[in-house]
Structure formats: C-alpha cells, structure tokens
Amino acid sequence: MKLKKPKVVNDWRKQLKSYSFLSLLATVLIALAYGLSLAFGMGLVSLSPMYTILAMGFVACLGSVGKFLKQFEEDEENEHS
C-alpha cells in the first residue's frame, strides 16, 4: 500500500470557521486555562477536575457531530456533482 502525500485543503480559511475546528480550539483553550490555573496554584481550590474533563468532553463531542453537518453552501453544491 502506497501512502499519499498530505495536502492542504483548497480553502483553509473556510475550514477555520468549521464547527470541528472551533471545538478543537475551545478544547485547547480549556486545557490551557486549567493548566495555567494549576501552575498558579488556584486550580486545586476552585476547579474540579471532573467538571473540566466533562467540559472538554462535551466540546469535543460537539465538534465530532459538527464534522458531519453541512456547514457551507458549497458543501451542498459539491455533493450533487
């Protein structure tokens, strides 16, 4: 089996507006905020790890569902051709 070279999508700016990318960005920001709060000694007092994990899981699930939704007009036009 021959591997194909990875290629960048044609319109990468459109992909930045997709639900899956936005949920990935939100998950990274939640993890960063939680990590910084632990680094400054505030996380153990004010944040429950369970709520942080639930928030990250919920946002990741939304992104996964968003991957299968038609988000742009062009997606519908390309599907019929």
Structural account:
- This protein has 81 residues and is mainly alpha-helical.
- The protein has one domain (17-80).
- Helices cover 69% and strands 0% of the residues.
- The protein has five helices and no strands.
- It has helices at 12-16, 19-39, 43-46, 49-66, 73-80.
- The radius of gyration is 18 Å and the shape is elongated.
- It starts with 11 loop residues before the first helix and ends with a helix.
- The mean pLDDT is 77.
Short description:
This protein is mainly α and 81 residues long. The protein has helices spanning 12-16, 19-39, 43-46, 49-66, 73-80. Helix 2 packs antiparallel against helix 4 (49-66).
Question: Can you give keywords for this protein?
Answer:
5 helices, mainly alpha, 0% strand, 81 residues, single chain
Beta fraction? under 5%
The end-to-end span amounts to 29 Å
- Which regions have little confidence, pLDDT < 50, spanning 5+ residues? none
The amount of helix comes to 55-70%
